[in-house]
Specification:
Chain lengths: ~375, ~375
């Protein structure tokens, strides 16, 4: 599937973004210019506690834009939280949304935007191109470097009843503006830095080997892998170094631009299934699946995987397979263990494989994987 | 077969959309939705412009007109800019302005009941007043409060009301009794003359009474209604029945009132008290009869005089006496007086004929008068 004609059609969509120190102070100006009078500021309790929501709020107030804070968002945002947020959006008479935080508040904000114009249940938008009306303007201020929800056309929402993660994919979900400021990253705890860093790396790798990759997404994917391989280990040593934090932010931005257009693959399909059943950290699931998916996919995109291995494994003495390089890299960041460590049990594998098999992310995986092959990958990652 | 029956094809279709090549895989744009909302608004605007009512949107604070429909412009004749530069108060005719401001202040404190309207004349650009009935409602858009004024031209209604008042006054002041009843013969209206004529305290006392109550012969009421409903005109003289059960002569004329589709929905009776007229008629009849008798007597007396006069003339002609000339001369004078009486009789006969033609029944004896001159000529 990867050997497609290079003249095949490709598209590249990106939001307006501003990156650099002080970017978040532009929130007020953008909100005002996008015609927001009273907006919903979607965040989570953790981000509020370290003051970034308030910092964005100050910028809004300065620009004369009022806001209502909605922070009932859990680490994996749930459909119920989206619907409750939409209620607040209506009752407070909002006409725009600002998301401050990691992937959870940003995905929740996207969901609230969709519901606010349609009034329908968020889960009814599951799938690709199912959002008929453009949601209200959305400004993202990411406080992690990895999910790229501030760049991407994806929103992943948890269906509590079905214990699954629902992917909503639509160009209408690409935010209007992303304000990429390195400063909020300095308050990330180590685990979050690692998990989001690995998420970004997974985005870049999956986009690069995607059967929908393009010369433009390749540029971003490779640059992202390069930045991650250098900045990630260093930022763990110097978490307050703004330059290093900025590198991880750029790595995430590049990965986002790549995967929002080339999409991702089996790692994400399988991580979504895990996240739905076990409510696990998304980045951690990616980290524990990535090397096994690379092994399974390798033949379908060997040249590209070798290139990834070469970038990530720079400076290593002996030759290692790309899967081996990736495994060593995650261990170097302190991610050890297997899926079993996270509590995944063998009896759940068929159900997990069933869910992963129907995940839209599988459509751009370089290899057409069968249900059984997916089960096998889970088995090995266990 | 749908493409989704083959998982491979389904996945391929999904892939097309994920990478942005689907039919609707478009970057967010508000333009199409904006266009359709604008079209919707324009359509609604066109609707508003077609109403009979003039609609104004007024800023609650300051009273400035901020929007209006085309009807408002048509009525008042101002350009858009002129209307937008005015407060609603400027549009009220000067004589009513202070009353209007009092009302506005009152309404500012306690909002109008639904359905409440205020009558005020609005000033057109060329200085005319149009009487309007205006409903004021308070609405809020965002942080701003506005007043929606829906004004209806009531020129025609005022004219109709005036006409109605004139007609009502004609009914009320008519010396004829006027009665309106529904098709079940129940009274819905009676004028004061009718009440007085039939001995009731006032028109209200008659409402709901049956038509039968006003006739000595109750079946008359039914006949009248039947004839009217069959489109036959009704004019008749009958005996009316007063409240105190006494009777009197009345002339009743009636008509059925029809609705827009030509169906009768009520009947109207005009009643005249004709007691006096009948008394006068009787008196007249008696007078004419006496007159006739007298005229006849004159004729008989004339004849009675002529007979002896003829004898006198005959005798005078036979005698040879100078006095005979004198006698004949005097007899001629008497004959002329009788001829004058005859002429009077002929004139009376003409009057009699005239009266007979016009319905007065005066009997006069047939008479062919015989002139004395003719008698005398026959003999000469
Ligand atoms: Fe991800």
């Amino acid at each position: 599937m990867n050997h497609r004609n290079r003249l095949e059609l490709r598209k590249f969509v990106a939001p307006e973004f501003v990156c650099g120190q002080g970017a978040l102070d532009l929130a007020g100006r953008y909100a005002h210019n996008l015609g927001m009078r009273h907006l919903l500021l979607v965040t989570d309790p953790g981000v509020r506690a370290v003051g970034w929501a308030e910092a964005v709020g100050e910028s809004l107030t300065e620009a004369g834009v009022s806001f209502t804070i909605y922070d009932s968002v859990s680490p994996n945002p749930r459909a119920g939280e989206v619907m409750a947020g939409a209620e607040v959006y209506w009752s407070e008479g909002c006409n725009g949304i600002v998301a401050v935080g990691g992937g959870s508040p940003m995905d929740c904000a996207k969901g609230i935007g969709i519901v606010s114009v349609s009034g329908r249940d968020i889960l009814s938008f599951e799938g690709v191109d199912r959002v008929p009306l453009p949601p209200p303007p959305l400004i993202c201020v990411p406080t992690t470097a990895g999910t790229s929800a501030d760049i991407s056309q994806f929103a992943i929402i948890g269906d509590e009843e079905g214990r699954r993660k629902v992917a909503i994919i639509s160009k209408a979900l690409v935010p209007d503006v992303s304000l990429l400021d390195p400063e909020p990253l300095t308050t990330m705890p180590r685990d979050l830095t690692v998990d989001s860093g690995i998420d970004a790396l997974t985005h870049a790798i999956e986009a690069y080997v995607s059967n929908a990759s393009s010369p433009i997404t390749d540029l971003h994917a490779l640059e992202s892998i390069r930045l991650t391989s250098k900045a990630m280990p260093a930022v763990l040593e110097n978490p307050d170094d703004l330059n290093l934090r900025f590198s991880t932010l750029l790595a995430s931005l590049h990965a986002g631009l790549a995967f929002s257009n080339a999409s991702v693959g089996a790692v994400h399909a399988m991580a979504h299934a895990l996240g739905g059943v076990y409510d696990l950290a998304h980045g951690r699931c990616n980290a524990l699946l990535l090397e096994y998916v690379i092994e399974a996919n390798y033949e379908a995109a060997s040249i590209r995987y070798d290139r990834i291995g070469a970038i990530l494994g720079q400076g290593q003495d002996e030759w290692m397979s790309p899967a081996g390089v990736v495994a060593a890299f995650r261990r170097s960041l302190g991610i050890s263990g297997t899926l079993s460590t996270l509590g995944v049990t063998r009896d759940m594998i068929p159900a997990l494989a069933e869910r992963a098999y129907v995940d839209p992310c599988l459509a751009t995986n370089p290899r057409d994987l069968s249900r059984e092959e997916i089960e096998e990958i889970y088995e090995r990652a266990l | 077969m749908s493409e989704h029956s083959d998982p491979r094809l389904a996945r391929e279709a999904l892939r097309e959309k994920i990478i942005g090549l689907g039919e609707t895989s478009l970057h967010k744009s508000y333009y199409p939705e904006l266009q359709s909302r604008l079209a919707e608004l324009e359509r609604f605007r066109a609707l508003l412009d077609q109403t009979y009512d003039a609609i104004f949107l007024i800023q609650a604070k300051g009273g400035r007109v901020v929007d209006f429909n085309a009807t408002a412009q048509r009525y008042l004749g101002y350009s858009r800019e002129e209307l937008l530069s005015r407060s609603f108060e400027d549009l009220v005719c000067p004589e009513q302005r202070s009353d209007f401001l009092d009302y506005a202040r009152r309404r500012h404190r306690s909002p109008a009941e639904s359905g409440e309207t205020y009558r005020v004349s609005l000033l057109t650009r060329d200085g005319r007043d149009i009487p309007m009935e205006v409903a004021f409602r308070s609405v809020t858009f965002g942080d701003d409060r506005y007043i929606v004024a829906i004004a209806r031209d009531i020129t025609e209604r005022i004219r109709i009301e005036r006409d109605l008042r004139i007609k009502e006054s004609a009914f009320e002041s008519s010396i004829n009794g006027i009665l309106i009843a529904d098709l079940e013969r129940a009274v819905t209206y009676a004028n004061p003359s009718f009440a007085e004529m039939f001995g009731y305290s006032g028109p209200e006392a008659l409402r709901g009474m049956n038509l039968e109550s006003f006739f000595v012969d109750p079946s008359v009421a039914e006949e009248i209604v039947r004839d009217l409903l069959q489109n036959r005109p009704v004019i008749l003289e009958v005996e009316g029945l007063r409240r105190d059960e006494s009777s009197f002569h009345i002339e009743v004329s009636g008509s059925a009132v029809q609705n827009e589709t030509g169906q009768p929905f009520c009947i109207m009776l005009i009643v005249m008290d004709i007691t006096e007229r009948i008394r006068l008629d009787n008196l007249k009849r008696e007078s004419y009869a006496q007159l006739g008798k007298n005229i006849e007597q004159f004729a008989v007396i004339g004849d009675h005089i002529r007979n002896p006069l003829q004898v006198i003339v005959g005798c005078a002609e036979m005698i040879d006496d100078p006095l005979a000339e004198k006698i004949l001369e005097q007899a001629g004078l008497i004959d002329r007086f009788i001829a004058e009486l005859d002429r009077g009789w002929v004139e009376s006969a003409n009057v009699r004929n005239f009266l007979r033609k016009h319905g007065e029944d005066v009997e006069l004896p047939e008479r062919r008068p015989i002139g004395l001159s003719r008698l005398m000529d026959e003999d000469t």
